[in-house]
Write a structure and sequence with these properties.
By secondary structure, this protein is α/β, with parallel strands linked by helices. The protein is built from four helices and seven strands, in the order E-E-H-E-E-E-E-H-E-H-H. The strands form two sheets. Strands 4-3-5-1-7 form a five-stranded mixed β-sheet. Strands 2-6 form a two-stranded parallel sheet. Strand 3 and strand 4 form a beta hairpin. The longest helix has 17 residues.
């Protein structure tokens, strides 16, 4: 098994209120030339905040350049406003539903139990992107400090 020391939270950078399947994201990533979906888990934008498995955790993901070997990628569907701003751009927004928040928290707690050395980060901690459109490191610090 890989030595995991990071769990990185992402958003799909898709519009608020829309839902996309793991298979759709897999197709997007395959079109980029990747061998599979980049994320290990995807939290859907449905009533239950369903958690779906993407890439097997035994395999390195493709979600944070240079840091995939020892990390797990978790993505929630959403992360941008439903409509473009006055300049025609999509604005980053924390679009997590209550169900997604609960599912993310449960998943992160479970992963932390499985990988006690792991610290939770947001993609934005390693990139100039706004992803996941909220401060995951601060919000989930209490989980990172467990065990």
């Amino acid at each position: 098994m890989r030595k995991i020391n990071m769990i990185v939270v992402h958003c799909s950078a898709t519009r608020e209120g829309k839902d996309y399947s793991v298979e759709t994201i897999r197709r997007w990533h395959l079109k980029r030339g990747w061998r599979d979906i980049g994320y290990h888990y995807v939290v859907q934008n449905d009533e239950a905040g369903t958690v779906n498995v993407g890439r097997p955790i035994e395999q390195s993901g493709a979600h944070v350049k240079g840091l995939n070997k020892n990390s797990i990628g978790v993505c929630y569907i959403g992360g941008v406003e439903a409509t473009r701003n006055e300049k025609g751009k999509w604005e980053a927004k924390d679009t997590r539903t209550e169900a997604q928040k609960k599912s993310l928290e449960d998943l992160l707690c479970s992963l932390k139990t499985q990988f006690p050395d792991a610290i939770i980060y947001g993609h934005r901690d390693f990139s100039t992107k706004a992803c996941p459109s909220f401060d995951a490191k601060a919000e989930y610090d209490w989980i990172s400090k467990q065990i």
